[in-house]
Amino acid sequence: MQEKTPVPSRTEAPAADPRHAEPHHLDAPSSEPDTLEAADTAPPSPGSEVADDLAGRRNMHQLIQLRWIAVVGQIATIAAVHLGFGIRLPLQGMWAVLAFLVAFNIASLLRERRPRFVSNGELFMALLVDVATLTAQLYLAGGASNPFAFLYLLQVALGAVLLKPRYTRALVAITCLCFIGLTIFHRPLALPEDLNGLDSPYVQGLLLCFALNAGLLVIFITRIGRNLRTRDARLAALRQRAAEEEHIVRMGLLASGAAHELGTPLATVSVILGDWRRMPRFAKHPELLQEIDEMQSQLKRCKDILTGILLASGETRGEAPTPTTVGAFIDGLVAQWRATRPAGAFDYDNRFGEDLPIVSDTALKQMICNVLDNAREASPPWVGLEVLHDGDTLVLKVSDAGPGFADGMLAKLGKPYQSSKGQPGRGLGLFLSVNVARTLGGNIAAANRPQGGAVVTMTLPLSAITLPPDAQPAPTDHAH
Questions:
Q1: For residue 217, which of 296, 150, 282, 270 has the smallest C-alpha distance?
Q2: pTM value?
């Protein structure tokens, strides 16, 4: 396990209500659920309530922004019709409706600034206010004969995207009732009767309303399509990630099974080598004894690797942990790592201070060695290790002089398959190290150094690795 492949070298329109055509967030892709998914009637899955809250707040924010655009559009339209076309409008009533809409939007803006849950019902009520103000303006300006009555369609289209089906059906029913009511109850407008064709204000308004509806619906549907494509791409990426992680689980099961199977033959070989070591005929040949010692050393390394595999898969240790001290453990690990790795400058600075008894945990050893291997791979000429005692934690900082981590790698530190080198391990070494640290109650963080290179900081609670007082070993001298 100590030889896992390291993580990479961190390589605008008159009389229109424009907001009716702008879906709440069909613009930039987001890591949060799409608005289209708000109409889902399926039972909420774990975490969906939080996602619905985030989407609801964003939807309300978008409605507030679009409502301001609607206010500006209505002011421009009223001024153009009253002054440009010479059609007398009930300005007092229309300004009152606009004042109400402005006041409502200010109240919505103030309410939005407080962290709170925005339900689908609240979005429905906000759209009802928009329908009510549009109905009031149409009532004061000719009722259903006003060409801008077709803007109800945009209200319905927006509701179909923002709201759940039951609210959408209610909105359709309400807009239909409003339209029917406007055919009966309305204030007629004094329009010129000697104008026909394109000279007729009604025809001009109808053409403008048609152009607005057509243009805004095209934009609306185009954005929906783009949002759907973005969502599909994201779902495909999530499926790929799930498949990769499932592959890791399968590899772990395979490795665990192999470790169990290899345990018996390795134990047999260990017994045989021990017998050979004690046989008189071998005692007469120092070169044979040296070879047996080398075989036993390599056999012990195989056992350590198998123990690490079992630990990484969450199983019991293959061998009992050895009592030691922080200094002796780190010194021994450093000596072993230096002896088995390519030559290069290695700065070891042990500033832990007063030594403490701990357990020589194989998983802990592998975690540190994996990080050191990553640093050596990124920066063969130089690697540094600093050991610190920070309160109740053991801090190990591994530095290198390589190219450093890419921003994307820092954001996904410890995720599997994040290597950019295309080598077989593909970042699994650091992935396993992060999981070991989490298992022990610690964490691993990475950053780029100002002078170049990177530093990976391993922080572990001493309570997870220290021995109880009655099991403390004798003090061991160690170098710094």
A1: 150
A2: 0.45
